[in-house]
Amino acid sequence: MTPLVPDAFEGYLVRTRWFGGKGRPFRVTGVRTIAEMGSADPGPAVIVHLVDVAYDDDEGGEDTYQVPLAYYADPVDRLGHAFVGAWDDAVFGGVELGSTWAYDAVHDRDAMHVWFEAFADAGVDGSLAVPGAVFQRTRVDVELDLDAASSPLAGEQSNSSIRFGEQAIMKLFRKVTPGHNPDIEIHRALTEAGNDFVAELYGWIDADGDEGSVRQLGMLQHFLRTATDGFDLSMASVRAMLADDIDGAASYAGEARELGRAVARIHQDLRDLFPYEDRDALAAGALADLMRDRLDQAILAVPELDSHAPRLRGLFARVGELKTLGAQRIHGDLHLGQALRTVHGWKIVDFEGEPAKPLAVRSRPDSVWRDVAGMLRSFDYAPAVVSMAPADTDDAGERRELCERWGIAARGAFLSAYAEECGLPEGRVAGDDLLLLDAFVADKAVYEAVYEKRNRPTWIGIPLAAIARLGDPEETA
Fold first, then answer.
1. pLDDT digit string (tens) for 194-210?
2. Whole-angstrom Cα distance, residue 369 to residue 476?
């Protein structure tokens, strides 16, 4: 590619939602062609590039991003918002393309049809090879509707998702590393096991990685047409309670219970489908050390945490005294935004884990209580965010009390249903399980305090209030 390409990518990356290096000094150190998807007829040539980025601040580090481009011989006005660059002498794979205008292919319906058509062709025998990549299919019995129009979903951050009519949705991973992506790995296992609480996986894309490894570029799933975002649904419940003076806590409890059962069923299947580990006291000590270290670092950014530090360190110390820890595959980044309510019940999505963590870390077995803690924190945020909104009434104290009551009821309903579905004694979380849950809740709230301090300082009271009430018997009754 011409020397102009890195400069063009640097200018485009900072305009996207999914680039994780915004605000940091960085350089594009290389642009590689990893796969050639083909050409739309008529339409653009579609080529997938990997863009290597190096950071020049004290933190340093490197990332690799997937940027598929649609190449046109002339400018395309409708794609101006996705323009990456134009070159007079572009050459790919030894083929001289001449003058070309390049656009992010995710925003081009013609380019996306090339992907969708490849998945459809892969359904004949389960796979389809294109130069540099292989489209794999699981549900080969599902006939894809090639007349479906594509449209990128708004609001995406770390990845890009494209909807194809009412049938399917494709997620393209933006930050890619060699290895198997847990989102594909777990969705495939749960789909093949017949788990009803995830969207069915239709297929995925493999590409060659470094030293014979594989890079996974994206996945195709069943589109949940009737889905409502779980966090939006929760906030709507709180608003309805405040507006209509109804017992919103009781009305939402049924939803929270069903979600608790769904998460428990997924955890049970993951325990059966992937290796389970009984870790020893050394692992418990290492976990406690990590939690203490994160707290110490967080206090530097959020001095308000210091008054809670003795109690939190005592909690983490008790974790370090545990003799065993159970570990299995989990979601890894579970919250209400990863739960979709459909006419067929709750569905859990996005098993990729925390995108900022290395792929090897996201694929390791972990405690199920990390997932549970993430959902409990989300049930805390929904009413807290609503209660912060301006109101035309003078009963701010009563609003806060109602919102707190809603959160307690939702967390309690979710937790009791989870415990019952998992077959815990007396259908409740107790003993070492409760200790671990409290520790993961505290650890998550400490992380949230740092995030809010840096990004939404007016929200910092949400995690600080949770830390202050940690251990309240009303929370886990």
1. 999 999 999 999 998 66
2. 14
